[in-house]
Write a structure and sequence with these properties.
Length: 451
């Protein structure tokens, strides 16, 4: 008689249970953190948890839905993800386009689709999954030669199309997340020169915000002159070198004098420019911003910046935790509702205040262990598809973690990026759950070569 397998036996072979355990730990910590900032004394904890009316009870419901989704994914065939990678990506783009027609605006961002029962779907979150699958599908094709510029441009377009749509939805934070796919492309052979160019551009933008324009132009000119002097003997052998230096100098000066001011005054909204300027300790004059709707710009006075207040309260909350923290349900800042959005974007503050520096380090080490484990999983794949997808998961998680934590301590502007598996939100939790468990399903079949 043929051997029969139970559902449990079907799921367990080849599954990396280390990642599953870390996932469950992080989701539990997230529910605990949301509970800490919302719990009211003299209430029936059990009743509030099953009521579905509090954010922590809703997050518990989301977690239950995610567990069902996780089990379903582990029971599927890995080949389904390669077969429907491009179709799912197309579906994700259509969903993002649909937000412009039927979308609902929340906090100034028209990136949500109402699905009933008070719940909303954010296509930009789900599209991260579809983009990871589509990129893995493209890079795993036998005819894709990633050493050629054409292939690199196509891969870049796959990653950046959802980012562009996110910008039009006023979701700058989520748009930046899609930059994490360039880390994956670097692993697959993207020339490091392109990453260096991108990093240099970022440094130039920051310098433009901090340094007075004429002084920065003189500094850039001095750097070009020094480079010409040092490399003067090589010009005879390589005549193009001098042209390259001059072009780079002209491009850099043009960016800092014209491109950056234009972007901040004409492309970004006033609040977006204010956030970025506040990150480097500078004030932004919204009267220069073409999106600013104040009828009398001549009499415009900058309002008290709420972003500065958010970060200041966040720093106070985390700093008040000290080395060991104030203890569970004893945080005065987070429990007193001083920190805005403390159950979503600023959820890290509740953990920092309650458990202090030691607790925060242990928490971040759990994340680090998860990331390292995913990299191990990625490197043991026989299939390019599975490897690219696993690195996409690691890159997305890494970007979210670094930006969110840096955001709460004032090292990055407030751009509304959730902390993976911790921040309140069904779309976010479901997205990261699907991302991780598709990776585990592919890893369970790592002896297969998927395309």
């Amino acid at each position: 008689m043929p051997k029969r397998y139970t559902a449990t036996q079907t799921i367990t072979p080849g599954i990396d249970w280390t990642v599953v355990i870390l996932y469950l730990i992080l989701v539990s910590i997230g529910i605990l953190c949301i509970f800490m900032v919302e719990y009211k004394p003299n209430t029936d904890v059990l009743a509030t948890f099953i009521s579905g009316k509090t954010n922590y009870s809703k997050q518990l419901i989301f977690a239950g839905v995610c567990m069902v989704a996780a089990i379903f994914i582990l029971l599927t065939d890995s080949k389904i993800y390669t077969a429907f990678a491009n179709l799912s990506y197309t579906f994700g783009i259509i969903l993002m386009l649909a937000t412009f027609v039927i979308g609902r605006s929340i906090n100034g961002s028209k990136s949500w689709i109402p699905i009933g029962g008070g719940f909303n779907l954010q296509p930009a979150e789900l599209c991260k999954i579809f983009t990871a699958l589509a990129l893995a599908k493209y890079l795993s094709r036998q005819e894709t030669d990633f050493s050629k510029i054409k292939s690199q441009l196509i891969a870049g377009a796959i990653a950046m199309a959802p980012a562009v749509l996110s910008v039009f939805q006023n979701e700058t934070g989520l748009a930046l997340v899609y930059l994490s796919f360039f880390i994956v492309m670097y692993r697959e052979g993207l020339p490091p020169g392109l990453l260096i160019f991108g990093l240099s551009f970022g440094v130039l933008v920051i310098a433009t915000l901090i340094v007075e324009p004429n002084i920065l132009a003189m500094v850039l000119t001095a750097i070009a002159i020094i480079a010409i002097y040092i490399l003067r003997k090589q010009f005879k052998r390589n005549r193009k070198l001098l042209t390259i230096i001059i072009v780079l100098w002209a491009l850099s000066v043009g960016i800092q004098r014209f491109a950056v001011p234009y972007i901040f005054n004409n492309v970004f909204q006033c609040y977006q420019s204010t956030r970025i300027y506040s990150m480097v300790g500078k004030d932004y004059d919204c009267s220069k911003n073409h999106h600013h709707t104040n009828a009398n710009k001549a009499n415009y006075k900058p309002p008290r910046k709420p972003d500065d207040y958010n970060v200041r309260q966040s720093k106070i909350a985390i700093g008040s935790g000290g080395i060991w923290g104030k203890g569970f349900l004893k945080g005065t800042q987070t429990r007193g509702k001083y920190v805005p959005e403390q159950h979503t974007d600023f959820i890290f503050t509740s953990l920092g205040e309650a458990f202090g520096l030691v607790g925060s380090i242990i928490f971040l080490l759990i994340y680090l262990f998860l990331l390292l484990r995913i990299i191990v999983i990625a490197e043991r794949q026989r299939s390019t598809f599975s490897r690219v997808y696993a690195y996409s998961v690691a890159s997305i998680l890494f970007f979210h973690i670094v930006v969110n934590v840096c955001m709460t301590i004032g090292l990055f502007p407030i751009i509304g990026i959730p902390l993976p598996l911790i921040s309140y939100g069904g779309s976010s939790l479901l997205t990261f759950t699907i991302l991780i468990f598709i990776m585990l399903r592919l890893d369970a079949d790592r002896q297969m070569v998927l395309r």
